TrEMBL record:
Compartment(s): Cell membrane
Domain of life: Bacteria
Domain spans labelled Major facilitator superfamily (MFS) profile: 1-387
Name of this chain's protein: MFS transporter
Listed transmembrane segments: 7-30, 42-63, 70-89, 95-120, 127-154, 160-178, 199-223, 235-255, 267-289, 295-315, 327-350, 362-381
InterPro entries membership: MFS, MFS_dom, MFS_Efflux_Transporters, MFS_trans_sf
Keyword annotations from UniProtKB, A to Z: Cell membrane, Membrane, Plasmid, Transmembrane, Transmembrane helix
Amino acid sequence: MDKRIIWLAVGSFTMSTVGFVFSSLLPSIAADTHTTIPHAGHLITLFSLSYAIGAPLLSALAGAADRRRLLVNAMLVFVVGNCIAAMSVSFTTLLLAQIVMGMASGLFAATAQATAVSLAGPEHRALAISIVVGGTTFAVALGAPLGALIAAFWGWRGTFGAVALLGLTCAAVLWLRLPRGLSGTKLTMSERFGAIGRPGVASSLMVTFLYLTGGFMIISYLAPLAIDGAGLSQLALPGLLLAFGVGAVIGNLSSGYLADRLGATRVVTASLISALAVSLMIAFGLHFLTRDLAGLLLIGIMVPWGIVGWAFPPAQASRIVGFAPEVAHLTLSLNASAIYLGIATGTAIGGRVLENTAAADLGFFAALFPVASLAVLYAGLRSHRRRLATAAAE
């Protein structure tokens, strides 16, 4: 395996850290910009929407451009976005910074996966993609708690500054280490989105979207959930994120093994049911337990929550690739967009819930989305079986 792929994973780690560290930064950003936490949640929504749109749109516009130059430029634009955020004096400037960072992150992610496959060769395609995507998992496990810890000592501006420094280092290494003349494949938007029409793909993307929507209704507002709902201090947030991240690594690493042994659909189904259980446990626990016990419940549930939450993405990616292996690079890109559209939607809905009800109610509303995901999954499976039966009869 080409060791240069590791630096593509570092780039993925750097960019994903911004998306996952926000849950701990929202209270301090809201206080400094004189706004509410739900309103500050628009920062996550805008970053995620920009990522979801940037991945297919900018990749299509970039066409067959040199990947080394494209990746480095995307990283440098991301660094600029972090610098703007760190030096911002208004909430509007912060919002603009999220657009810049989100679009750059989407372009980098799509290009990095394609570059990793080119460096590794077709025989190591799955491993190369998993290494790059692994950067996102480690952003949850390490980047988010470290970012929260930096914010605890140097404020949220310090977190953006630290991410900018890491991004600048990564850009320099990529410029020095990646080969010249590694061109991409020019595809139109219709060609990129045409993969949605493949049997099973559209329903699977909807399952991804609904699952992430429910999950990030809670994750994005972990700070008010922990502080206002469970009575924990703000200093507990890095520890909560670290526990969640440890679970995420366990879930991510075990998902592939379980999917091979039990089948990807069964792992996805188990994740959806577990997500429903976690949402209800949080909601009922924060409503009916004392604040001390609710705090202990939230602390105790973080590792299992991370495991079940991050067992979903690899198994779901495996399902989607299985429907149309020949266009895996397109369906995986669409799945990434569905993930970030779900994050954006979940954050937006969660913010409106938080504006009108207590933080403890987030779990009740979030629980609706795994149920909807299960319904879509079941309908998709029935449709797939009917197609197979019809094909066999013919």
